[in-house]
Amino acid sequence: MRSAPLVRVLPALVALLAGAPSWADSDAQNVTVGITLSQPGGSGVTPVPPQPSQRAGVCYSRSLSEKTGASVQVVCDSGQFVSIEAVPGQPFLGVHGGAFRYSMSIDRDRSVYDAAAKDPFGWRTGWGTVTMLRLYDVQHAGGPGDFWADRPLELLVSF
Amino acid sequence: MKRILTATAIAAALAAGSAQAGNTSGTFNVNVTLTSACTLSAVTNVAFAYTSLQAAAANATGGGFSVSCTNTLPYTFGLQAGSGAATPPGASTISVTDNAVNLGYSLGLSAAGGTGNGVAQNFSVTGTMAGSQAGTCAAASCTNGAATNKTHTLIVNY
What we know:
Shape of chain B: rod-shaped
Structural class of chain A: alpha+beta
Helix content of chain A: 10-25%
Shape of chain A: elongated
Largest sheet of chain A: 3 strands, antiparallel
Radius of gyration of chain B: 34 Å
Number of helices of chain B: 1
Largest interface: A-B, 36 and 62 residues
Strand content of chain B: 35-45%
Number of helices of chain A: 2
Strand order of the largest sheet of chain A: 2-3-4
Structural class of chain B: mainly beta
Helix content of chain B: under 10%
Order of helices and strands of chain B: HEEEEEEEEEEEE
Oligomer: heterodimer
């Protein structure tokens, strides 16, 4: 059996050594990442207020009254801009309404509406959404037909 | 009497003198083999506080660590997703989507590496979480305590 001439083997050996990692050793430690995720309007970090130039983004409306006491909440991609909530630990009586969805101007942007219809969360809609909250004064109501009690305070947010 | 004193003095002088007839010397070497090393301190937890759909990116806090290396020894840092066995040299950044709160984030390092000076040198693991992420949380606030991919690996190569 003939061995390869040293002249031919040496360059390959040098190339092999040169390609090897130059690090002699290493040490390692674990890094643990902790995340606290808060809902908009919750007790977490306050969202950045939207700038006027950013208000054309997609917005979301939803009712959280069953879970958090929030009755109306509107959140845009550029940041939350409406949130009406009960005082923590207090009932939010006299509320009628919540977050309603009205998809208007569908023909203007059909693709957005179609995407909203497929949204598994069900609360993302296209342009032309209206969120409404109606409050009744139950403390000063004089009974059925009371003129003043039947005058609700309405908040209408359209975007 | 004087002769007796002189003889005594000579004898004492001989007794006090060195018994060596001569001397010679040789040299020897002290060979030292120093194995260079770096050690990492524990890394403080990297913490994100994020509000769902917030517009601005969130930067992590924490992540501090120190490295102690042999004088003049160059070293680099690397990151590796997960807590499995380290496979040096690691990457300069890693991107992960937390499997508990479904938020994506990137981890990096305050420096690519350095040169050892025999004492602890301070660095940090940095973190960024992009804005406009919804995340997953069935309550007003959630943590990723149950995530199985929240621990990663920092490597120092030398």
